[in-house]
Amino acid sequence: MIKKTIIAVCCLMAAFAPHHASAVNDKPFVIPELKVWKGGEGLLTFTAADGQQAAAPAIVVKKDANSAKVKEVAQILAADLKKSLGAEAQLPARNKAQAGDIYLEIKKDKALGEEGYTLTVTDRVVISAPTVKGLYWGTRTLLQMLDNSKGKSLPKGVVRDWPDYSYRGAFLDCGRKFLPMSMLRDYVRILSYYKMNALQIHLNDNGFKQFFDNDWMKTYAAFRMECDTYPGLTARDGYYTKREFVDLQLLADSLGVEIIPEIDMPAHVLAFTQYKPEIASEKYGMDHLDLFKPETYTFLDALLKEYLDGPNPVFRGKYMHIGTDEYSNADREVVEKFRELTDRYIRTVEGYGKKAKVWGALTHARGTTPVKVKDVLMDLWYTGYANPDSMLQLGYNLVSIPDGYVYIVPKAGYYYDYLNCKWLYEDWTPANLGGNKKFPERHPQIKGGAFAVWNDIVGNGITDQDIHYRCMPAIRTMATKMWTASATKLPWADFERQSQDVREAPGVNYAGYHPTGKLQVAQVKPGDTLPIDNIGWNYEVSFDIDAQPEARGTVLFTDGGTTFYLSDPVAGLLGYGRDGYMHHFNYQFYPGEKAHVAIRGDKEQTTLLVNGKVVETLGVKKVNFGERGDMYYIRTLVFPLKKAGQFRSRITNFTAEAAK
């Protein structure tokens, strides 16, 4: 078994170890970059003078009118210290901090705004902020600073930190590609760790009909919410129950993140029109609603009511997104009906006590029908659909999400597969709305920014982990540029290098990232449990096998979502299944065959080697649909390790190792 080393943070010292260095401490590396750092001299160390581990930290809460809420922050911090560094933090009842303590307090400071904080490291750590949210962000900084030294020390100094933009978001298209609730919950934790505060979830959409025999009724479409009003509307291949969606929002709220649910309309609605064909537009296609039929509005009114009505609605946050993008503007009368629908559902959402969020489309849909402006938040994604100058002049508040800069569409051949993070880091802030439209920093109507993942190409093999690997560089970069904007000082090369060592979030490792770990097992026996769930890209997994006859479907390893087979259930070959897709190598063991097997995986391909020779590489496969175009089919594998299956073969000398 792999030898596991657990490093614990220790904030209450058995004996305080003084540090006599005279140099002023450099700014600690955290994401996003700290606004102001005044370095002190020396370190606050968290080990005893003899180098042995000290007692667990104490997190002390100032007793005042804010104590209850601050204690919640302290409890989250204590749990995260346990997850990330193994420390059993204590929350004593005393009111005053001692050497080695972490002290949390609400303290007025107008200059810090709603989300700013100070963090002071002397012989103790003091985090203070005007608000509970600011205090919470300060604890994220503390956790990252502790991670830099594996919990051993903190540089003495003072942090003053606040965001330039109040909206710092991410967008996930769950309509075309179902992303499991476990991933969404982890993403709340990840975004929170990087001080991002909004996650928009796109709940309905459809594929392109050219990949489905040009038949709308065959074209993939999904609505991801449990639905009682319209039984059978909910997607059968993956959906969120109301209870778990509420729980997601409660988790997010506790971690400073708002979930913004989006029900897209009146385009991108094939899931609705397949269910109720009579509300589909005959002129523009089934992915458009017919805006002239009363039944359309009856349907939408009832759908929104299910999630917004009552004292404890399913959608709990301040905002709901109503879509309103990419409807045809070919007909003047249709444009006016589109504007009417947009205004109607802005007001509908507001009637349930929420605020509306929309995609910018009012330049594309230029007309005379008034559309409500006040308190509406607009995603400015393409200047041809919504001219920024016009939208600002009308009075809209904007989120900067320019498609040409921050849209990820995996393996589509357009937009980005991975964002150009170097360019974003060096040249972009939310004040850049695309189309060379740059505005002054901190413009009062430009509330912030976001990046988006669109899963346009349905059925192309993309998994949730493929999406995750594309998201993490974007999250780290965008978090910085939406917090520090033009004040970002660290050179890109240094940021890129150091950011690789920042964890996803306490207790979260969705990528299966083990950069220095090597797992070795002398013999893997049926039913064995290994100490890690999986290993992410740039890995090599190898083993010796004394092969015995195996039934089809014989599992070597599984992590519950991904399975590697000694004999896959389709062809009886070495293969793997993940996220609804099955792949196999053109290789099957003879009974009694003895061989050394290796599997290598990266972000583009998965390779099988037997006795040192490459048998087959499963890379990106181009599938031609004739005049309808090409699809690029992905066959990556994050290798599962959690649980061994039931097999007859003898597996020895097992090794799983990430590339150096």
TrEMBL record:
Family note: Belongs to the glycosyl hydrolase 20 family.
Coiled coil location: none
Gene3D superfamilies, alphabetized: Chitobiase/beta-hexosaminidase domain 2-like, Glycosidases
Domain Glycoside hydrolase family 20 catalytic residue range list: 165-485
Species of origin: Hallella faecis
Matches recorded under InterPro entries: Beta_hexosaminidase_sua/sub, GH, GH20_Enzymes, Glyco_hydro_20_cat, Hex-like_dom2, HEX_bac_N
Keyword Phosphoprotein attributed: no
Annotated protein name in UniProt: Family 20 glycosylhydrolase
Keywords tagged on the record: Glycosidase, Hydrolase, Signal
Boundaries of every Beta-hexosaminidase bacterial type N-terminal domain copy: 28-162
Leader sequence residues: 1-23
Record-linked Pfam families: Glyco_hydro_20, Glyco_hydro_20b
